[in-house]
Write a structure and sequence with these properties.
Low-confidence stretches: none
Number of strands: 10
Radius of gyration: 14 Å
Shape: globular
Order of helices and strands: EEEHEEEEEEE
Helix content: under 10%
Strand order of the largest sheet: 2-4-3-5-6
Distance between the termini: 19 Å
Strand content: 25-35%
């Protein structure tokens, strides 16, 4: 596909203190899509855990490609599922499209439910209850903590 980057320096599960790819790079592998981001711990100093959900960090997080697992420092817009354990200002990948298995249970829900950061706890998602909630994924097999990612990029 012309115009799409095909070679990436940083592995999906690698963490780095230096920028190895371009922030915001989009990467397809099979039926899954990933985005290269910078992690921010936020005011609660929450480290990122591989397999947990991250949210766009503060109001400018989306345009700056910065994410956090600290829901209180987000604008409640899901950014993706972390692929590595990340600390403050480290770089890595989040999965934004396709099937994923979380390492943390959803706050609530049943198979097929639309999911949102609103009402959840750090690192996970909850069932959307309001038309203004940001839907970023759908519950797959909830007993196995599987979701279908549809995070914005």
């Amino acid at each position: 596909m012309p115009g799409l980057k095909r070679v990436f320096v940083q592995a999906l599960t690698e963490r780095s203190t230096t920028l190895k790819d371009d922030l915001g790079d989009i990467r397809w592998e099979g039926n899954k899509c990933y985005k290269y981001i910078q992690y921010k711990e936020g005011t609660a100093a929450v480290d990122g855990v591989a397999g947990e959900v991250a949210y766009y960090y503060t109001l400018d997080g989306h345009k700056n490609n910065q994410v956090s697992s600290d829901l209180s420092d987000s604008i409640e817009i899901g950014a993706g599922v972390l692929q590595a354990a990340l600390s403050d200002n480290e770089y890595g990948w989040v999965q934004i499209k396709g099937p994923a298995t979380l390492t943390i249970a959803l706050t609530a829900g049943a198979d097929g439910d639309p999911l949102t950061p609103t009402g959840s706890t750090d690192g996970t998602l909850d069932v959307t209850t309001d038309v203004t909630d940001h839907v970023c994924a759908y519950a797959g097999d909830i007993s196995d903590q599987e979701i279908i990612c549809d995070f914005p990029f």
